[in-house]
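Changelog-adjacent note: as of this version, every example in the card shows the full chain rather than a window. The one below runs 366 residues end to end.
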Amino acid sequence: MTTTSSKNTSQPRSDNIVRTASLRFDNNALLQRILGEHDRHLVRLEQGLHVRLSCRGNRVAITGAPSDVAQAQAAFEALYRLAEQGHIIDAEQVAGVIRLSGPMPVAPASSSQRSSKTEPDVGDLKTLPAFQTKRGIITPRSPGQAAYMNELAQKELVFGLGPAGTGKTYLAVAQAVSMFLSGQVERIILSRPAVEAGEKLGFLPGDMRDKIDPYLRPLYDALHDMMPGDQIARRIAAGEIEVAPLAFMRGRTLAHAYVILDEAQNTTSAQMKMFLTRMGNGTHMTITGDLSQIDLPPGVPSGLKDAVATLEHVPEIAFCHLSSADVVRHPLVARIIDAYDKVSRPQRFNNGPLNYHGSTKPSATR
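Full-length structure tokens:
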């Protein structure tokens, strides 16, 4: 793919300059995959990147503000490389490239808890990180995910914090599988608190494994996206992959392993300290959680919140804060998160005290 022409023209509005760039693609079949059926991806790229696109033969003309044109060129280059590598170019992939090639999101006012490493320059999508698994290459779909993946690849202890749908657990499992398949670690250990929102395991039917498996299902689901099912079963039987509740970690030393603690906001401070001190030689750890969804009983502080406050200045520990801008699920998920963030919990519940189910306690009667 090459850029064949470019020109700038002044517009009636004095504050706006329009540029036109033309891209030529060597492979028409790959170009059609990028444009999508009935040019549906072309329309989405126009809307997401704020440019006008026109396609004729193997050429695509991009017209818009200079910065928007540059971002659109980067997006087309990234999509073309993905198509060359055999990736499926679907609506999710296009949306991810739009997020990555667009302007960087504004950082929160408080940056003391953010990772010390700055987010990558997404203007050049060639430098983005990627994880290799049996099912293919996994790439980031937002600037926050790119920064998170960089930290996962470089640091031995990473905290991934953010709302649902931002890929915290999925990308951590992808990094674990990638390092395991390349021989950098000898096993994968996935864990999470087994009791959430007040439910008691004893009320569930079956033996201990039957009781805890529903709580660990999200970790199994992520694994099955990375590796064939028969291989997962074989490696679990061999002890190379372990999925266990947090309570089973006590007293162990975890060496030469990739260890992930999911839903860490529902740990106590004692449990979090216990888990972090399991770290042995050659071990990489990732702790993921959403501090807006703490389900602990009233008066019990979150171990994740305590760990962030305690360890934020410890060298070689990365804290990656994802936001609704990094949500890669249905677009409504990001809007739902933003709507909840705009209204504080006390306001939503008439300033009444909250129990850990998110409802108000009944007022005392006289």
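Structural remarks: The longest strand covers residues 2-10.
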